[in-house]
Design brief:
- There is one protein chain.
- The termini are close together.
- The protein has helices spanning 56-71, 84-98, 117-129, 134-148, 156-163, 197-210, 212-234, 238-254, 260-270, 296-305; strands at residues 2-12, 23-38, 45-46, 103-109, 166-170, 174-178, 186-190, 275-281, 288-293, 309-313, 321-322.
- It is an alpha+beta fold and 324 residues long.
- Strands 1, 2, 3, 4, 5, 6 and 11 form a seven-stranded mixed sheet that branches. A four-stranded antiparallel sheet has the order 8-9-7-10.
- It is globular and about 60 Å long.
- The protein is built from ten helices and eleven strands.
- It has two domains: 2-181, Ribosomal Protein S5, domain 2, CATH 3.30.230.10; 186-313, GHMP kinase, C-terminal domain (Alpha-Beta Plaits, 2-Layer Sandwich).
């Protein structure tokens, strides 16, 4: 029972989506691989947490602990949940339908931390243990994300990692899969500082509370950029896509969700003629930067010479897949 799922990036619209604006995400070809085999040891083991053994009773306790918290939306109580509890919570949901099994779970991942790493894991794990459709896998994988992200996520991460390709999200309309074939030659730059999503989301809220008119204008500009980007990506007009990325980044900087390190790296990228455009992706404050390039290998080597870690990625159109 083997399955894998890609990571994801937010191309346009982060933070604005909190206020019912359009966001665009896409899956990228960095993957998490899950290998599951039945065990005769009488419990569940996972190579990622070798010091811990899980059994049916533990899974039941975890489900009983978190179900009322989630149902009552007492999300502040989820902040201190141990990281591995989100995976166990998902297993409890899966086993409720399939019946409990003792397993050994082997996890290998190339997905960076703020690129949907938990969603890719949960999608692959669900696919490995069930015969569900992609829509059903995304719904179930999102149960793990609820606990991993300390509340009710939008579902865009799980949907993107499961379906692959491009998706849009708007709170009032939900998730829509886009039939775009562009391969978007992207690189991912790791700032090697943690993303601060909860902090930056609260920062935008504070700014908006102080000056609603100004911040709403910025959010609407981001929304217009996201809307324009759909056709621009479809046309594979990379120069224009890059321009929109630069404009989106400037607006994110005005929302104070960038950082000195992100700004410094993007300033470096702006001087490279092989770069169409660049912006932070995700919560900001750290995490990753995405750049659209003319020559991925040359840009990566140039950044390596400057001591900056980067990775070549292309759009993953497969999404989750079973490898049996």
């Amino acid at each position: 029972m083997n399955a894998s799922a890609p990571g994801k990036i937010i191309l346009f619209g982060e933070h604005a989506v909190v206020y019912d604006k359009l966001g665009i995400s896409c899956a990228v070809n960095l993957r998490t691989q899950v290998k599951v085999k039945e065990s005769d040891k009488g419990f569940i083991t996972c190579d990622k947490f070798p010091e811990i053994e899980y059994n049916q009773e533990i899974l039941k306790e975890i489900e009983e602990k978190y179900n009322p918290i989630i149902q009552n939306k007492e999300f502040s109580k989820l902040i201190q949940a141990p990281p591995h509890h989100s995976g166990l919570y998902l297993l409890s949901k899966i086993f409720k339908e399939t019946g409990y099994k003792d397993l050994h779970i082997d996890i290998t991942s190339n997905v960076l931390k703020n690129m949907g790493s938990s969603s890719a894991l949960f999608s692959a794990l669900t696919a490995a243990l069930t015969t569900k459709s992609k829509d059903e896998i995304a719904t179930l994988a999102n149960q793990g994300d609820i606990l991993a992200h300390g509340g009710t996520p939008s579902g865009i991460d799980a949907a993107t990692c499961t379906h692959g390709g491009f998706l849009t999200f708007k709170k009032s309309k939900g998730i829509t899969k886009l039939n775009l074939k562009s391969h978007l030659p992207l690189i991912i730059i790791d700032t090697e500082t943690p993303s601060q999503t909860s902090t930056t989301v609260n920062r935008v809220k504070t700014l908006r509370d102080k000056n609603k008119i100004k911040i709403d204008l910025i959010l609407e500009e981001i929304n217009q950029i996201s809307t324009e980007a759909i056709d621009t990506i479809k046309e594979e007009n990379y120069a224009h896509v890059g321009q929109l990325m630069n404009e989106n980044q400037e607006l994110l900087r005005q929302l104070q969700v960038s950082s000195e390190k992100i700004d410094t790296i993007i300033n470096t990228l702006s001087k490279n003629p092989n770069i169409f455009g660049a912006k932070l992706t995700g919560g900001g404050g750290g995490g990753c930067i995405i750049a659209l390039t003319k020559n991925q290998e040359e840009v990566i080597q140039n950044l390596k010479n400057k001591g900056i870690k980067s990775y070549k990625v292309n759009i993953d159109t497969e999404g989750v897949k079973r490898n049996d």
